[in-house]
Amino acid sequence: MARYGLRLLYGVIVVWGAFTGAFFLLYVVPGDAAGGLTAGADGGDVKHLLAEQRELLGLDRPVYVQYWDALTGALHGDFGQSIYQRRPAVDVYVESFPETLQLALLGLLLAVVLGVTLSVVIELTHWKWARELLISLPPIAVSLPPFLVGLVLLQVFAFQLHWIDAVSDRGLGGLLVASVALAVAGGGSISQLLTANLRAALTSPYIETARNWGLSRFDIVVRHALKNAALPVVTSLGTTVGVMVGGTVLTETVFSRLGVGRLVVDAVNGRDMPVVLVAVTISAVIFVVVNLVVDALYPLLDKRIRWEG
Amino acid sequence: MSSPEQEDTPLLRVRDVSVEFALPGRAATPVLDRVSLDVSAGSIRAVVGESGSGKSTLGRVVTGTLAENGRITAGEVVLGGRALTGLPERQYRAVRGKEIGYIPQDARLGLNPLLPVGVQAAEPLRAHGLASRAERRERVIDLFAKVGLRDPERLYGRYPHELSGGMCQRVLIAAAMSTRPRLLIADEPTTALDVTVQKTILDLLSSLVETEDLGILLITHDLGIAAERTDDIAVVKDGRIVRSGRTDEVVAEPGDPYTENLLRSSSLGFSGRRAATARLEYSRTVPADAPVVVEAKGVGKTFPSRRGSDPVTAVADASFQVRKGTTLGIVGESGSGKTTLVRVLAGLTPADAGSVEIDGEPVVHHRRAAGQSGLYRRVQMVYQDPFASLNPRSTVRSILDEPLRGHRYGPAPERARRITELLEVTGLPASVADRYTAELSGGQRQRVAIARALAPRPDVVILDEPVSALDVSVQRQILDLLATLQRELTLTYVFISHDLGVIAEVSDEVVVLRHGHIVERGRALGVLTDPRTDYVKRLLASIPGAVAPRSALSS
């Protein structure tokens, strides 16, 4: 369990790194929130107005003071006020979170289901041409840009079939289509990895044994090879979740969904530091927790692996 | 034993079977050529041959599991009056695992590492719909007890890595027997096991033949096992049966040079006394005041273990000396600490206790040991499996160049000369230099591995089971090569083997390890012909062929 404690420490370092990285990236990008707030202003006193706003927001303080303030605040759970909405950044984030959570979870679930099903079907397909065709699908899915998938789906389901609204459909159909757009790349990468691992697992001696016991091809693939082949895929799930978090930004933009992705895009554009820091920190925490869970899952799947004392 | 009526209608009848393998862009390669043999109920038929002879293909013909590019071009396989050749896959599946049981070569690898062994042993019952879930568990536990597994209830939920190789093989035998098959195909069932375990597994198979009226097709490379355990033998060479008949007749009169050679090089031909006596003559040529090259003093090594159990003692208080130009043989079963001991000798693993000196210089586990004058150059290793120890994507030249560069042997032209020289002394043609190791045979690869060990002109060569992964006829050549090299280069060997026949032939002194402790030590001839401990006596007794052939006993 000592090793698990060490992982936890690494996790804390990752979250801190993400927080700090986001802070300084946003700091070095030209422009700040004061500029955003005074965007409409005109005339000779713009400079004066800018300086006033900066002072008000505390942006005129040295950067290390700002950083220290932000960090100590965050450690107490206080990320400060959203500059534009004038209420706690955490509240702003929490409001849009369920929308994105739905999308990301459904996307992840679809990615796993699609990826695993495709890999199993590939292994069960007898006809060579059909197999070749199926094998070519995962790499294509991975290399398709997510916004393109989104736009194509939008074109088909909104403008041609009229099953969903083109702009921020809040129904189940809209959620489903958006999840598919999000799941394509993840499912492709899961299937790519799983297909290669299944191929390797199926050449193992224990598969030969199972075949000689009279098991059907389906039983051999699903009961005996799949679990062995799935271990590396479980590891990759940690990364897939990371990809999903990034993917929601694009997907939400394309489908005009008001989730965390959209919130972050707007916050970055407006240099709304507190909102950006909340979003980045929580994403990093989710990423770290998922990876810790994956690590903890491993010994359950493979009894040969144990936590060394 | 088989009665005349049974011989008329044997359990398994293979008639004039030919098999071809299609390779892309090449003409089909024939693998079996008009092979015929029978297996009667209540008897064991051995199929003996070297690797690549087609003996395993013959097993696959019977189980209907040829690789996709393999094709039966002629002949038929009949099991109990029913033709199996040409059967559609779905119907074949009903036969496989139900009427034909199968035992794979390496029991540990033959079981799925992620499923409990009990669940796996129940798979044939489940696949053929022979028992409900609850019944399956009960049946498997019964079978576990029947094949000699202790505490079967608890074993049911265990995983393969928690079991020994012999236990895994018993699990697989239980699985195969669960459907009460009439025929059992055992493909090298004991090759991966220690000799003492080998004996108990073969005993189990023999008893099943008696009690279940089972027919067994035993595929093996070891004519010694075949002679001791089987009723009939078929010797396969290049896809053809070159000799077939009752076991005692084949052993008494091999008839052709191939069979004779197999017989000679098998463990049946082992005579510890003769081999050790021959070696003694060499030992006498080594001057008595030859300097001590390797000296181990009270070497100990323990590994920390999982929570809750005591640390594992791999080696405890091991002391010995090896003089220049002699061989120390290290004998012991797997897990006895042989490999840990030599890793300490080579400076690859630090010892917890005691010390090792090479040429009077202490072995240190440190980077300073590298380089031309360093310790690592003076101790080199040759590993068991040349398929695993050589990178298949490297040419022989780059493999041999690596240690030369690593130990800063000299400029490129000088290294090139050394590589040519190395190929010559290890009996490899110069043309091999630019081939990839994947293109070489097992024997050639082991020569490359030996050449690589000799490259930086070591004083001590550690040979870790250098011939046990090789075919018997190739084993002979490699052992001869090692003997020649030792004589000409005055090399000092530390030779690990589980095969007492090999140890008797190569060793001047022998150390017997058990659970990390040296239980016997001394002149090879003395230890092998007049063992003092029960352990060594038992090791000697488990060598196949040490007792009379089975059929000779029964006739």
From TrEMBL, chain A:
CDD domains listed in its UniProt record: TM_PBP2
Any one cellular-component term (Gene Ontology): plasma membrane
Signal peptide: none
Keywords assigned by UniProt, alphabetized: Cell membrane, Membrane, Transmembrane, Transmembrane helix, Transport
Gene3D superfamilies in the cross-refs: MetI-like
Cellular localization per UniProt: Cell membrane
Membrane disposition: Multi-pass membrane protein
Major site of localization recorded for this protein: membrane
Transmembrane segments: 7-29, 101-122, 134-159, 171-194, 233-255, 275-298
A Pfam family hit: BPD_transp_1
Family matches, as SUPFAM superfamilies: MetI-like
ABC transmembrane type-1 domain location: 97-298
InterPro entries registered for this protein in UniProt: BPD_transp_1_N (IPR045621), MetI-like (IPR000515), MetI-like_sf (IPR035906)
GO MF term set: dipeptide transmembrane transporter activity
Sequence similarity: Belongs to the binding-protein-dependent transport system permease family.
Protein name (record): Peptide ABC transporter permease
Protein species of origin: Streptomyces shenzhenensis
